[in-house]
Amino acid sequence: GGGSSIDNADDDGPVLASDGAGNWVLLWRRNQVLGKVLAAASPDNGASWGSLAELRSGLGGAGTLAGFTGGRYAALATDRLGTWIADWNDGCAKSIDAGATWTIPLACPFGDLWRLEGAATSGVLLADGNGAWLSAAAYLDPVTLGGSVGSDADILISRSVDGGVTWSHPAALVGTAARGRAWKDLDSDPVLAVDANGQWMAAWISGEPSLSGSDGDPLTGDTDIVVARAVPVCRPDPVANCTTVRAADKQRFKLVARGGNGDRLALALRSKDLIPGDFGDPTGTTDIGLCVYDRVAGITRLVYEINVPASATCGGVPCWAGAAGRFDYIDRTSRHGAVTRVKLRARGGGGGAVTIKGHGPALAPPRIPFIVDPDLTVQVVAADTRTCLEAHFSSPKRNNDETFRAK
Prior knowledge:
Elements: E1 11-18, E2 24-30, E3 36-42, E4 53-57, E5 74-78, E6 84-88, E7 91-95, E8 119-127, E9 133-140, E10 153-160, E11 171-172, E12 187-194, E13 200-206, H1 209-212, E14 224-230, E15 243-244, E16 251-256, E17 264-271, E18 288-296, E19 299-308, E20 313-314, E21 317-318, E22 320-323, E23 326-330, E24 339-346, E25 352-359, E26 376-382, E27 388-393, E28 398-399, E29 403-406
Parallel strand pairs: 15-27
Antiparallel strand pairs: 1-2, 2-3, 3-4, 5-6, 6-7, 8-9, 9-10, 10-11, 12-13, 13-14, 16-17, 16-29, 17-25, 18-19, 18-26, 20-21, 22-23, 23-24, 24-25, 26-27, 28-29
C-alpha cells in the first residue's frame, strides 16, 4: 500500500527517495497526456503513507503553463539535510518537511527552457549532501541555447551550489553536443551518481558517433552507453594560504551568460609570487580548477566551478603540453568541456601568469549578477597539490544578468 489507489487513471514513472532517517517520498506521473505529477510521503519507513499531494495538476495547473501537455518525466532527490526537490519537464516543487507540504520555489532547474521549443524526454536529479545539486535531462532542439547543441537530442545539465535556491543556465553535458545529426544521433536516459568525496559521474544512452563511435541512426545504427566524470577540484570554501594577486599586478575576469554559443569566460592573472611547481603537472595527474566564490554579507559561498582534466587527449594528441613553469592546454573542439585554452606560467626567478578561456554550450555559467558583498574571489587551483592563485574583485565594471566584468 503506497501513495496510490485503484482508479481509472494511468500511473507511471515512479521515483523514490529517502533521507536515511525514516522519511520516504514517492513521486510519480498520472495521465501523461494531462501531465499530472503526484507525491506521497511516509514518516515511518513506508509503514504508512500520507495523502496525495498534487504537485502538477495538469492542463492549466498552478505553477505550470496553461495548455501545455507535459509530465514527460519526473525526478526526485533530497540532500538528507532537510531539503527535498521534485523536478519535472516543465516545473518543480520543494519541501522542507519530508514531503508533508510542497511549495513552488523561485527557481527551477533549466529555468524557462521548457516554455520554448525544447522538449525534455527523460531526466534525473541528485544532491551531494553538501549544498550541490545537479539536474540532467535529454532535450530535443532547445532553442534557448540558440541552436548551439544542434537539432538532435542531447543531455543538458543545470547546477545549483546553494541548496537548490538558484540554478545555473542550461548547458550541454559534453562540449561535442553540437555535432549530432538531426533526428539521428540521439542521447537519452541520463543517470547520475556522486560519492562522499564529491566525485560526480553521469551515464546515458548515446547514438552520437563522436562519443560512442557508433551510428546512432534509430533505423540503421546502434547506440552505446557513455560515461562522463566531473573532477571535484573546487571545495565549498576557498583554499587557505592561496597566493594572492597583488594590487600592482594584472587581474581581469569576464563571464558572459547569454546561453549556448553566447556563453563566454576569460580570466587573466599575473603574479610576481608564482614559482615553478605551483601548478603541479597537468600533463600527468594534476587537474586544474577555476573556482568562483561570491560573498553575501561577508559570507563566502562557491557559486561556480569549471575544471580542466589532466592527461586529456584532443584530436589524438595530448591537450596539455609543457613542463614545470610552463604549461599550455588547447582543446579546439571542446572535447573535454567548454575550456578551450589555458596558459600557466611561472618563471624561476619569481613571477608568472595564468590565462583561461572558454566558450559554448558546455560552459554552464551561474545565474548572475553576482552579489559581490564585499567582493568576488576567483581561485585557480591545482587539484593534487592544493596550491593556487587567487584574485579579489570588489568593484566590477559590469555586473548584470548577462555579463560580469571586473579588473
